[in-house]
## 1
Amino acid sequence: MVTRSVKRDWVLTEDGFNRLLEALDSDRNTAADRYEHLRRSLVRYFDWRGSINSERDTDETIDRIARKLSDGQTIEEIHSYALGVARYVHLESLRRQQTEQALLDRPLIDDAKPDNHLDRRVECFETCLGKLPGDKRELILAYYEGDKQTKIVNRQKLAEKSGLPIGRLRIQAHRIREKLEECIEQCLSSGTAGDD
Amino acid sequence: MNSEVYSDETLKKYLLGEISDEERYQIEQRYVADKDFLDQLLAVEDDLVDEYVQGELDATEREQFEQKLLVTPKQRRKVRQAQILLEAIPAHGRPAPHENIARRRSSTVSWMGWFGPRWLPAFAGALALLILLVGTAWLFIRRQHSKELQTKSSSMNSNSDASSQTQFEPTPVPDQSAKIVIALNDAGTQVTLNDAGDISGLGELSPADSKSVKDALKTQQLRVPPVAEGLKQEQGTLMGSSGDGTPFGLVEPLGTVVRSDRPTFRWQALAGAASYIVKVYDSNFKEVATSGRQTNQTWRAVSPLPRGAIYSWQVTAYQDDEEIRSPTRPAPEARFQLLSSAQAKQLDNAQRTHGDSHLLLGVLYAEAGLLPDAQNEFRLLLKSNPGSPVVQGLLRAVSK
């Protein structure tokens, strides 16, 4: 099977990356955080646009921004600029997806492992839950406790108990869930539910 | 950076693609720059996925969800993850079976305590009477049942084994002596077909779905509807821009069956064009939908189009004072067909009950004429069954 890859004539250099960090913030640590966020948000942007390879499209977007900076050009509004580049990358990617006709020459678009039996999923869930710090484990369990109506009441009580506005609690639950899902995915892919 | 407060409802609409271009851009600008806002949006996505998994979305939202958030492998994985969480979290707090027994025991003890010793003789007498009554009734029922069994088995084929009381089971059990001829990894388990024609591993299937899967496995042929085959042949010509009636390429839908009754149209940009208008026509060339001026190269029909019909579409690009249309003669029409209501319902059901079976979904998509979806499912099935000639045959059948 032939796997097609995106042809790139420029790759991210150390200089390009440093310039990108500088453009994000003069403080190196803050810039690193901002870079992480930019990357994460672009991945989501491509996911929500239906990209089959959001990581690749994000890398391409970041490369192009860094290249512009590396060429000595300035970018006033880096986030708006990034979004503009992302839009072009997405259109190109979409066009490529649609025109790749020869089915067997195309890369498989799902890198998911075959579905696992429910028992294994539950095993992985338990293992990953066990790896969470105690307070996070309790929060996520309490957050998803109960059926539809009870859940709403439970969450309000939980927010009161934790001294958080409900919106903040939801964001916290999301961040824990994201970690948990990441861990379960790795566990299912590795084929072992044991502690590693 | 804008600091507008967006309601969950607006963010949900953003995720489902039901929002104006301008508002979408505002939201995107905001989350690219604002970490908390991105997390808020992701939390809304979590809720939306949970609602989908728990069947809490209405029909329109469900369809929008499937169109927007169930397209890529990554999105499907997210839904599977939600299924795991929503199944495992409530189960996590439940007591283990031995704890239940202990609890039952302790409640029996307290119940006896409430009666107290002075009630014990009367209680023992009542209990003995109850046992006697239940015992008599049980013997009577058993005798009647035994008579029924004898009558039934005597009317059956003399070859039938007397011990095979499974014949009275509501669910047929595959013949254990039959030889397995095909085994595939699918839906997290092994799906098998034996030489008696029994299929197992897919749980409850409707007779029609069961027959479709069996036939597909046996013959590696799929009942692709003839219209879909006809549409498919025109697909390639319209995608690239050229001087043969396609000044700019159309992307989708082209020569395919479309599942949503509000299709999304995509086309390539024409250099210098300021805006575009999409027009959709029925088979009598009557205009059935129009986009109005668009600056993007994508538009989703605002109102549902009647299902089951064949449509064509054309895009007009506005470049200065010039109107440039694509496609025009001699290029073929850009046509597509909407999936019928019955098939849409059948697929919805299959996705709900067997959403993780690439085999079943692939077969049903092929029979509905949704060839790219069928190809995708069979490619995934091939990944779980590398080198399987059966799956390769199925893949070939939808890739002709």
Note: Residues 50 and 82 of chain B are 6 Å apart (CA to CA).
## 2
Amino acid sequence: MWSRREFLRSCVASSSLVAVGLSIPRFLSRTAAATLPADKPGGKDTLLVVVQLTGGNDGLNTVVPFKDPLYAKYRQALRLPLPQLHKIEDDVALHPSLKGFAELLDDGALCVVQGVGYPNPSQSHFRSMDIWHAGSMAENPSEGWLGKTLRQLSGSQAFHIAQENEEAPLALSGSPGRVPSLTRLEDFRLHMRAAHRGDLLAQRKVLQQASAGTSSPGLLDFIQRTATQTYAQVQRLQELAQSYEPRVPYPASGLAQRLKLVAQLIDAEVGARIFYVSLDGFDTHAEQLATHGRLLQELSDAVTAFFKDMSARGHRDRIVLMTFSEFGRRVAENGSKGTDHGAAAPMFLVGGRVHAGVVGNHPSLADLDMGNLKHHTDFRQVYAAVLDQWLGVSSRQVLGSAFRQAPVLQTRAT
Amino acid sequence: MKPAMTPEQAWAAYRPSPDNPWDTRKVLHLYRRAAFGATYAEQQHALQIGPHKAIDELISGRPGWDAFDREAAGLAETIASQSDALQMRAWWFHCMLYSPHPLREKMTLFWHNHFATSQAKVQSVRYMLGQNQLLRRHALGSFRTLLHAISEDPAMMVWLDTHLSTRRQPNENYARELMELFSLGIGNYTEQDIREAARAFTGWQIRHHRYYFNASEHDDGPKTVLGRSGRFNGHDIVDLCLDHPAAARFLARKLFRFFVSEEMTPDRELLEPLAQKLRSSNFDVRSAVETILRSQLFFAPIAYRSRVKSPVDFAVGIVHALEGRIGPTALAQATENLGQKIFYPPSVKGWDGGRAWINASTLIERHKLALAITSTEDSSFGDHCDPAALARKYQKNTDEQALTFFLELFLANDLHEQGRQALYDYLAQTRRGSFPPYWTDQDIQDHRVRTLCYLVLIQPEFQLD
């Protein structure tokens, strides 16, 4: 809102931009964003948060087959210290940085899908990323799997929470409406050019009047209603920006701040069901150990804080957060204490209704394809589960053909 | 919804009468649909000469459009040789803003949405500009000629993989969209038709940036498509599609949606006279568009404000009515935020349009863009698009005059009484107030007029076309 200091400053700089707070009856804004409760997966208000790990995450050092002698053979400089690993199965453990993920697993909220990939894997960042984004192997895709999903989720929005200058992901293109890329909450507000307080108040009144629907059902009424909802959302988000107090502290990292913005948007009920964030830096060709540890730390801490915050606000069973990377990395480390581009890798799903535990075996280190792990689960099987069982959207339509759903979500008897 | 008139009445020419007069609302309706809105002078001029001559002018373009074209073509060539995709988008905005033949630009936009091709896949500024010029050349010409030409267009051939299609492995992409999206619509052909038609387009390749027929990759065997058999090539398929009775109906329906209404679904009976006109004129687009623009239906209440302004119409319309001179690059970037990145349609189906243009995010972006253009203080738009200067030019000096002026210019006065009162109150409440002491009376007045203009542009009514 309008502090005395801002007001004085704006009198000096006559054209300073100021945010508008419109007073809209609370009941109206509630109605505007009202959604039906989700009694079952595929219900009306399930949410999907996609976290992209850009650059090719080293899956082998993320979910580690620590007992396999071949692991020690292939990874000498990069071998992770056994005592610090978080053991999740007899012979599988999480990277030391993934402490938060280990806790989520204990809490029944983490699913680890092993050995995910696709046939004839590409080792080009761009081509492989396109395949994951499009959900298809088609050459030069121009539409993304989430964009197609949005076409079926009529009325729902999505947000791309971007880093500065990060382009909108292909995954979201092809949606019927534009998917906004936000880097901060301030992007989502109305600007006015007011010379003084009276000027501002008078402008606000015009806006309020403009969105006051007096017309009969039709296009004009549709625009007026959308404007009313928008002004309400803008106001709630601006209030939230100042008053949002996370139930658990978020780390200061970039990913944590982006996920905090997702949390604010979810809590403000702005009518979006899909959120997209990414974390860059996984292309660890050299000196991988420290970099990779730091990245996984950022991932684990941010996701854990986000999930705890959301759980404390009652959204635990509405959320599925899913991570992916365009490929895993070569099994054998290279001579620069790093790893080169590889193939199959694990995915994580976090949420109150995910199938807690490990899905599938770790791909064999004895049976490699050009030095890379072979996948046993197609990533589109994971997409299919998320689409059909979680968002309630036909995966056949989105993916172009039928994929057997990977068992990554709880199946509940109804 | 059905208009309360027979198809014959609907397509008969509108003639002004005392109870259905030629007024500002009709003038602006015509200029919104057949151009990018009207300046105050254009509005007055059209009121004076009446609908018949006003439509003549729109159909033929103003004198000098061919010279403008030649100059624009030269610019396009430079941009193609530099392969600058952002400049390519800016270039088209330049054409839309300043061409003396706005209807042709509007129809180019129609065809861009019909044959929606994206630089995202084509990855060639030269091909995309070439296609755009092709669409412009035939914008008001023969749809038959255009459909033949677009089939051989390099951008289209890359976009829908025609150039990869071989005798052994025909690619069905182009054959499918030719029938589904370009000429017939779903339900008027079978999957078998597509498979057979795909064979006819094999051997269509690109060489030296041009269409090239590679006979050794062409399958010249007999094919059966849409009930006819023969050793068809791609051009035969195009003609077979156009000879199908659904083709004229399909195009008529799209023209109806573009010019008349997005809200109303016309029945076959209503569209039939327009479809018949297309068939009997060998798909002459100009005469079909002319029939629409002159019709009773076009000027009927059911068509009025029954479309959502596209981002391009929103942006170009504001600058045009304000008689602004701005660099088009900023406009190209801004409309992307509003949801329409020209040369990059979201899919081969084009933009959905209609209500899909409007959501919370795009509405906020419309506010931002209206403010950026009218404030004169946004460096990317500059100060040559100034509502205050425009009001002075037409000597609208008092508050009352300025209010009436902008309401007429942008809304043809279509604002309910409370809305008008709210704007009036804005002016009344800012007559006094603690403006910065160094502001002159002129500064204060200019600020109020610019703000007034912004507040008119964010009215829900202005989001409709």
Note: Chain B touches chain A through 57 residues (CB under 8 Å).
